[in-house]
Amino acid sequence: MSEAIAYEREGSIAVLKAQNPPVNALGVEVRKGLLAGIERAEQEGAKAVLIYGEGRTYFAGADIREFGKPPQEPSLPDLCNRIEASPLLVVSSMHGTALGGGLEVALSSHYRVAVPSAKMGLPEVNLGILPGAGGTQRLPRLAGTEVALEMITSGRHVSAAEALEKGIVDRVVDGDPREIGLSYAGELLEQGAARRAVGEMPAPEAVDFDAAYAAVLKKGRGQLSPATAVRAVQAAAEAGSFEEGLKRERALFMELMDSDQRQGLIHAFFAERAVSKLPELEGVSPRDVASVGVIGGGTMGAGIATAVLLAGLPVVLIEMTEDAVAAARGRIEGNLRGALKRGKISEAQFAELTGAALTVSTDYTALAQVDLVVEAVFEDMDVKREVFGKLDTHCKPGAVLATNTSYLDVDEIAAATSRPQDVIGLHFFSPAHVMKLLEVVVAEKTAPEVLATGFALGKRLKKVAVRSGICDGFIGNRIMNAYRKAAEYVVLDGASPYQVDEVVRGFGFPMGPFEMGDLAGLDINWAARKRRAPTRDPRERVPRFYEMLCEGGDFGQKTGKGFYIYEAGQRGGVPNPEVAELIARDQAQQGVTPREFSDAEVLRRYMCAMVNEAAKVVGEGIARRPLDVDMVMLFGYGFPRFWGGPLKWADLQGLDGILADIRAYAAEDDFFWQPAPLLEQLVAEGRRFEDLNKAD
Ligand code: T1G
């Protein structure tokens, strides 16, 4: 018997206990152990088999780390079929998260019991695949086609109560998984209950699978796995037999397993968990944070305060005037009312969070006891340095002083205090109580435990915290400026901004750069462009149609007009015809002869600019690893998760092709298109960004 599965006998019941921490993933040793356990129980004349997991959970799925490696027997589909075919009564007792192959093992069991806190689901689509061990054939037989389609295409984890109501589990009982499993199996034996093989149940009802496929494909914005999973469930209803359905499931599973999107999504799964693992934080304990101060109650300050309150920490927010105090409290209450409406908090919690947990004041002495402060005032160096001077005066020794600046030099801000070692950048993204990304910006003198405190707060706020060094725009905004420039250059040279937006949406982004500009407010970027103008390199091409639009007072959605025109009550905008005139005037003034751009070339230039700047950010050590950039772009800039991020995408495309294109573009503009030294090095050494992720 393998170590991963322990075999015990409780009377006529053989007990197979999974012991493969942390999540009892169904790796080869677990599979071997389960198969050997079933066979031994049959040989020993047991009457029933109980399968359960030791530790925090029942099987949380196949072992994702085995993907892409040579397959090892027994395969999970074969194991599930073997469990189902056993002449003994097989009972699964579930706790924690019974997911993917884990739920498939339970579905191949003859009876299922779960503790009330258990969650279960088939989330394989989130990894770019589909349930490949019978889940697409057994779940619809047990719960019906519609339920199976919804659970499999969404990857949603359902509660034990919902699973009971849908017939996925037979019983929900509180207690220890082993004990409730044994008593249920014992009861079934006493009743002489028959084996119930889900695979032998009638085929599920057919539905309009083409309509389901089209709807799921549209919702996926280019992700293939959910739509492909519809075809697998369709086979359950239409393949004519369970075995034929399994064959169809297998073929579709292998198709997705060989896809780039599978690689992108698996990369995202592990990268999301790796970003907070930094060598410099090993053995470093964060400072305790039991209360947080926020300076500034505008959209960002109020969003940050809301995120902190929702994480269960009291907030002291400071504003300049009583009117501003009232406005800030209003914004926070508005955010929390939204959470109440979405059922995230109860009425009682709303009262608590807007009551005792929240102090809004003009008096900095109210910050005397807080453990960490986040400054979120106007993006101006003098204003920020003045605030940090006050924080230095009023905050207790050891308090962490954080700035939410999105561009300014954190070292210069820290120098406004007597304790630069306690200063760090915590760059939230708007709306701060919704967006998952948090750039943790390390200044020259930031102490290791202050960095650790930034990451600990990020975890407490359920953010994806990514370490960033200091440069203009840190990781995300710096890269965004590059691909936004590339977008403006193709427009100046002849493409339409609406073609660019459509192409970028087609790639999987929720919005194109010009739509995004209109949403964020064109005046924000205009201010940054004006700030940079005095120090801009004269060799840099500068499209002026953007400025022309802003000079006309058109800032996008907030003024009802920008690159698009927004009618009140209408979702989205329609192209603003004045924009074409501004572009034509800009082309004439700059002596540009416009030309046609194919969608493919528009996308290639956009992505090459993103990858090139990202490679510079990694090469300069601003981002520690390529995966850090990928996570910033996924969680802060809408980069489609199924590509894994710009540098994973680049690896999948082939770096030599990307470098060759950048060099070709440099023939037109060798200032913007300067190949990143890291990209040239990797191509020269025949390596990929992935190799640098592993190096750390
Ligand atoms: N395989 C390998 N490692 C896994 C794993 C898995 N399935 N699930 C988690 N881990 C690791 C994870 O990397 C981390 O490692 C540690 O466990 C704790 O995880 C045929 C083929 C279970 C809800 O998609 O959703 O079955 O970072 O930090 O927040 O149909 O992990 O500590 O080194 O996430 O409490 C389907 C994936 C697989 C579930 C726990 N299953 N896992 O969340 O902890 S495909 C899934 C999760 C499949 C079959 C197909 C979550 C969790 P480390 P964690 P958590």
Strand and helix layout:
Layout: E1 5-10, E2 13-18, H1 28-43, E3 48-53, H2 76-85, E4 89-94, E5 97-99, H3 101-108, E6 111-114, E7 119-121, H4 135-143, H5 145-154, E8 158-159, H6 160-165, E9 171-172, H7 177-191, H8 209-220, H9 225-238, H10 242-257, H11 260-274, E10 292-295, H12 299-310, E11 315-318, H13 322-341, H14 347-354, E12 358-361, E13 372-375, H15 381-394, E14 400-403, H16 410-414, E15 423-428, E16 437-441, H17 448-460, E17 464-468, H18 476-492, H19 497-507, H20 513-520, H21 522-532, H22 545-551, E18 564-565, E19 574-575, H23 577-590, H24 599-619, H25 626-636, H26 646-653, H27 655-666, H28 677-685, H29 689-695
Parallel strand pairs: 2-3, 3-4, 4-6, 5-7, 6-9, 10-11, 10-13, 11-12, 13-14, 14-15, 16-17
Antiparallel strand pairs: 1-2, 7-8, 15-16, 18-19
Helix pairs in contact: 1-2, 2-3, 4-5, 4-9, 5-9, 8-9, 9-10, 11-25, 12-13, 13-14, 18-24, 19-24, 22-23, 24-27
Bound molecules: (2S,3S)-3-hydroxy-2-methylbutanoyl-COA (T1G).
The site of (2S,3S)-3-hydroxy-2-methylbutanoyl-COA (T1G) has 24 residues, from strand 5 and helix 3.
Notes on the structure:
With 696 residues, the protein is of the alpha/beta class. The chain is 49% helix and 11% strand. It has 29 helices and 19 strands. The strands form 4 sheets. The protein has an 8-stranded mixed beta sheet, sandwiched between helices. Strands 1-2-3-4-6-9 form a 6-stranded mixed beta sheet, with helices on both faces. α2 (76-85) links the parallel β3 (48-53) and β4. α9 (225-238) runs antiparallel to α10, α11 (260-274) crosses α25 (626-636) and α19 crosses α24 (599-619). The chain is globular. 50% of the residues are buried. The model has no long low-confidence stretch (mean pLDDT 97). The chain binds (2S,3S)-3-hydroxy-2-methylbutanoyl-COA. Residues 22-23, 25, 60-65, 76, 97, 99-101, 104, 123-124, 127, 129, 131-133, 135, 273 line the site of (2S,3S)-3-hydroxy-2-methylbutanoyl-COA (T1G).
